[in-house]
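Example 5.3 — Acetyl-coenzyme A synthetase
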Amino acid sequence: MWLRCTSKCVFASLSRSYNNVLSRSFNIAAFMPEAAGFEGVSDRAALQEFSLSNSDHFWAAVARHRLTWISPFHTVQDCDLSRGRIKWFEGGKLNVSVNCLDRHVHTCPEKVALIWERDEPGSEVKVTYRSLLDMTCRLGNLLRRRGVKKGDCVTIYMPPCPLAVASMLACARIGAAHNVVFAGFSAEALAERIRDAQSSTVITVNQGVRGGRVIELKKTVDTAVEGCPSVKQVFVAMRTENPVVMTDRDVSMEELEDAVCEPAAMDSEDVLFLLYTSGSTGKPKGLVHTQAGYLLYALLTHRYVFSYHDGDVFGCVADIGWITGHSYSVYGPLANGGTTVLFESTPVYPNPGRYWEMVQRLRINQFYGAPTAIRLLLKYGDHWVHKYDCSTLKTLGSVGEPINTEAWEWYHRVVGDGRCPVVDTWWQTETGGICIAPRPSDPDAEIVPGMAMRPFFGMKPVLVDGEGKLLTSNNTSGPLCLAQPWPGMARTIHNNHQRFIETYCQPYPGYFFTGDGAHRSEEGYYQITGRLDDVINVSGHRLGTAEIEDVVNHCPAVAESAVIGYSHDVKGQGIRSKTVSIMSFTGTQITGVFLQFVQRLPKTRSGKIMRRVLRKVVEQDLGGLGDLSTLDDPAAVQEIVQGHQDLCSKK
Ligand code: WTA
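Solution (predicted structure tokens):
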């Protein structure tokens, strides 16, 4: 059952006849040069089919064409999903920083690699490929001189800034892994991640600046490392001019180093980075990504999902502390030799026009953001968008949560002026890059609001039933699995391969289990219905939280909502909906559905609603709330607890 309006949206109706001409004379070599040699492939549908049925051939050609190798790989893939064995491009050696920097410095040294959109609008800093390489090499030498070796793991606790990117690439250059921790996490959350990663080196800045506020990042690191005996040194860069207390452990990043740094020759399957995700239970998981496969998948998805063309300015506003920042602010765009924006601020600083003023000033061509921000901004009204010239925009992207139809329509109609395709991209930290998205497809192929729709090259999504049997028909829903390995997938959980196998490989043997539910439409398009641990079962009907939230969100007074189930003697589960209202704070009961209006929902720092917390409140299990330090605004929980008590006492 899907409650969402499924009005079809056709962007290019005027140019349709032109596109027909285009697709009739579709030039595969112009679209993807390495595909010219694929037998029988003359259009995009055939290319998709080829990428699945000739997976080795497809990925080998792409890997040879798109990456610069020190020595070639001898085996394309050696994967067994049922046993959690995933290996790509074995035998090959390469260096990721060379692929992201040196090769572009050879062809276009003065091209802008990074635009650092600093917190204060109008104070952006542009960094060319030449100077990013320079910065990376100096840092690589500093790390090397200070004893960081191949195989070590360096924790990076920095806001988005060129030095953070150079730190990531410097690790890649000398063969160390990085572990970027979102620079908004508490000292405890940081310490837990440093300990699990066994880092002896941390890189940070003296202070961060976000939304006009100064954040004491170095102090947080000081507190964190007190509980981390593994940490031997902390490198400190200066984001502001305010000095901070330096201890014996601390090293200033101003130390001058040589600008030539020999890149390490890395095996395809050496670790590139760890990235922790919270997971639905206690301990965060350190997902492990490796060199060649990850980079290849990030660069290919970046180019094709967003139709990125040379010379475009790509604006992904995710923080570098998330996988979205890794793949689409840093690795994908840089490996493609593109120009990428690093966004340090918030969507509402200094006002709700921030994104669109930035789009105008930086002439952004692709904008990639989160539904939570879109939902927030649409409530402030269209005039914040209309004030600015957004005509440079060509593609709009969405990631992180299901995007409800109201937000999708607004994004498309108001931000994109009805002309830009909106790509709702589904993927995960585990997948490394986008797996399902409306593009690439024919330029006039339909895009249905709020649907990720089409698998990317080489991706084979499947739906299974409770027993793990494949659901083969359309117009069906079930747990979403991925049936074929792909180069970008995580290889393991750091120090816990067994947990990796149990979480992703064992639930449906032979498939990679995503933890999400999805619906496959009559036409064969995929729509994500949300995390399966959030699914609600009412009288035997399984309802995705997103479906109900979509309906609630249509109410004009509601900015966004979070729906959870609670146990009910008759129905199995009833529905509780916590609604952020910009108007009021009341409680109402509507035939088994409780609505509680609150000012703020509990969200993770990346904008995901923590329904787990709401469930505990409703179950009156306040002792089981768990670690709240990764919440964006832990105070929101108090308000919800209080509101819930009031609601219960009214019943
Ligand atoms: C959810 C973010 C619906 C999903 C890249 C997934 C989405 C989790 C979408 C991964 C989308 C991400 N539509 N849900 N377009 N994109 N999700 O690891 O539940 O931070 O499993 O990676 O976000 O979140 P993560």
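Remark. The pocket of WTA is lined by residues 277, 322-324, 399-402, 424-429, 452, 514-516, 528, 531, 606 (CB under 6 Å).
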